[in-house]
Amino acid sequence: MSDGHSCPVLSMRVLAGVGKSCLLLQFTDKRFQPVHDLTIGVEFGARMITIDNKQIKLQIWDTAGQEAFRSITRSYYRGAAGALLVYDITRRETFNHLTQWLEDARQHSNSNMVIMLIGNKSDLDSRREVKREEGEAFAREHGLVFMETSAKTAANVEEAFINTAREIYEKIQEGVFDVHNEANGIKIGPQHSPGGAGLTSNQGAAGGQGGGCC
Amino acid sequence: MKKPREKLGERLGTRKLGTKVANKSIDGICSSDIIKHKEEEDRNISTNIRGSQLTAKTTEKNKEKEDEKMKKRLQWEEQQERWNQALNLNKDKKEPCQVSSGNDDGWSAPWGGWGGTLLSAASTFTREVGRGVGTVMETVESSIGVPSPEVMAEEVCKSEHQKTVSEENTTSQGLEEGKQIKREKQTDSEEGSVGGDRPGNQVEANYSLGGFSLGSLVSGVSGALETASSKVLMGGLDTLEVIGRKAMDVIQEGDPGLHKKRAFLSNKKPNLTQMLQEARQRAMQEEKDGIVGGGNKNLQKPSFEQAWEATEGPVHLEALSLVAKQCQSKKTSMIATLPHFVQEKLLRENTVIKTTCELDELEQLEEDMAEVVSGVVAKMGLQLHPKKLIEAWSLVQEKAAFVQEVGLEETDEAEGVLYSALAQLVAQLCALTHKGGELALITPDTDPLDLASHFKELAQVVSCGLEKVADQVCGAITSEGSVTDSQVSNTITNIYLQAANGNNYIQESLALLASVLQYSNTKSAASHL
């Protein structure tokens, strides 16, 4: 912050669920860590991105995928502007649970929340249990954006987060999100570097299933 | 400009004015005039045909009513006179009079005093026109549509006169019948049904007799009315236009083209670019103000807030507050379903939890913080790892030592380093509290009251740590410089103040945790029932 952004900062928060901590780590730290502690409640990650020459702080809330935390993670949808709904293409049951997660997300979030469907582990095509077409069909049916990613090879990871952020950004431009209402997960706050002002927005990525990410 | 006015006139005229005139003026015309005409006729005709008894009877009957009507009419006349003066109606008024007097010749011959009657009727109409225009003035409405009620009323009058005359020519019995019908007519018109609603056969027949003169009279009256009211309307609308223009001038003042107001009214959705620009300008303005006000040094002054925002602390607090909010509402609805004695017990316990989660006066931190923290966390029985908090504490101590070494010259920079270390410490505590709250909700067999006191102990330790560091640093600064030096005392005050800010966040996290634990307590009480 001490470098002083001449440009105001827009930051967003994404809660990445389905225990897709690897996805988050790949996005924020650009590294892959095959073994992860189980997420307790929620973990946070943040990264600055640039959209339309505007600096945006994307804040990601990585929610626990475990059933036990479900009632807690529900509280976190409220403050989210967007969500990544992640399933594991090598595990059919994670795909089957999507409807439940989507219902939760829709029920407890802002109705304008941007939801993106992510089929993770696209590098493990040989062990694939869920066809790409199935993911596409599900996304089409529920009006979501669909993408297959690999936290391991970093394929599409950047795109997934940034596209979600861009969609939120466009919704802000259209006036769909009231940036003055922090319950939308977006806030314009003072940037603490001199001469800067920040626009912060939260985007939640709720996650699908599954203990072991990656 | 003219067309819209005419349209406006049409619209308003057909709707509102018609009804008003019909209700008010016609009332007058029909009831009073008919009576008056009747009386005049009676006078004229009685000498020729009827007996004096009959005349006396009729006049007596009508006299009382007439007196009243005359009073009213006098008032109208006065009013109308005023209107005429104001509106230059005099010319227009003549027109219908001439028309009616022209008819006079043709009509007077067979039926005696008819011309006079008609004339007076016509002049009454002009008065009514005046009144009608008055109504127009009052309501700023237009002329079209007005004549029709007048015409209707006139037709009624005329037919009645004729009927009366013809009947009187035949028998006195017929006259009485006619009178009855007349009375009916009067009531009809008084009810505002504008005559003609219930025309007898004779009345209908008489229509055709009056056809020609009626037509010209109507055109005259309506013409006069139109001219008069259009004048009024033009005047009224001109005034409105002036008012409107003036209003627009005022609205546009300081906002040419109405860009701001238009943007305000039509485009409520925020424009991001614009907002960001404004935010930036505000920030620059604040910066400027800072330089002007307190010098450049003040602006660069590091603060705890600034350091705090850079940590994960605010996010943890926000997340915890989301959970706490949910717990709060769940708790309220859950308690309502429980039996009364359980409610009382819960209320007591929840109050204890709340008071436990309040920071006490600071004690001195005697023991090693790492040990205390590890011990407390272990007692909680949750899957919590105090490693990060302990690391943050060692960082704080390290930085405090650094600040004590560099002394006053580098205070600003040193302060910044110190605050960010302290902020890290508080953030780690908040993270731990947040995690602890979540785990308390999903871990079975935890005692919320115990947890509350453990977390309070933890918070107390960290809070004491903040105080201790502030003491150390300030002590070092004081020993180097003179206490009386204002700059030194300012610095010391500021350091204590900033450290106290950390306490606010600790207290906030504890209060949020209290809500979570209260729900956890309520939930377990409910499950043990």
UniProtKB/TrEMBL annotation, chain A:
Q: State the signal peptide span.
A: none
Q: From which residue to which does any coiled coil extend?
A: none
UniProt keywords (A-Z) are: ER-Golgi transport, Golgi apparatus, GTP-binding, Lipoprotein, Membrane, Nucleotide-binding, Prenylation, Protein transport, Transport
Chief site of localization: membrane
Residues spanning the membrane:
none
Any GO BP annotation: protein transport
InterPro entries per UniProt: P-loop_NTPase (IPR027417), Rab_GTPases_membrane_traffic (IPR050209), Small_GTP-bd (IPR005225), Small_GTPase (IPR001806)
> Which GO molecular function terms does the record list?
GTP binding; GTPase activity
Q: Which CDD domains match?
A: Rab2
Location within or outside the cell: Endomembrane system; Golgi apparatus
Q: Which Pfam families does this UniProt record tie to the protein?
A: Ras
Its topology with respect to the membrane?
Lipid-anchor
Q: Where is this region: Disordered?
A: 192-214
Compositional bias segments (type: Gly residues): 205-214
Entry GO CC: Golgi apparatus
The Swiss-Prot or TrEMBL record describes its family as follows:
Belongs to the small GTPase superfamily. Rab family.
- PANTHER family annotated for this entry? DRAB11-RELATED (PTHR47979)
> What is this protein identified as?
Ras-related protein Rab-2
Which species is listed as the source?
Scylla paramamosain (Mud crab)
Q: What is the lineage of its organism?
A: Eukaryota, Metazoa, Ecdysozoa, Arthropoda, Crustacea
Automatic annotation (TrEMBL), chain B:
Q: Which family does it belong to?
A: Belongs to the FAM114 family.
Tell whether Nuclease is among the UniProt keywords: no
- What is the protein name given in its UniProt record? Protein FAM114A2
Basic and acidic residues bias locations: 58-72, 155-166, 176-188
Source organism of this protein record: Scylla paramamosain (Mud crab)
Please give the Pfam families that the UniProt record associates with this protein: DUF719
Q: Could you tell me which residues belong to the region Disordered?
A: 37-72, 151-202
- InterPro entries named among the record's database cross-references: DUF719
Q: Which UniProt keywords apply?
A: Coiled coil, Phosphoprotein
Q: What top-level branch of life does the organism fall under?
A: Eukaryota
Where is the sequence biased in composition, kind Polar residues? 45-54
Q: Which residues form a coiled coil?
A: 262-289
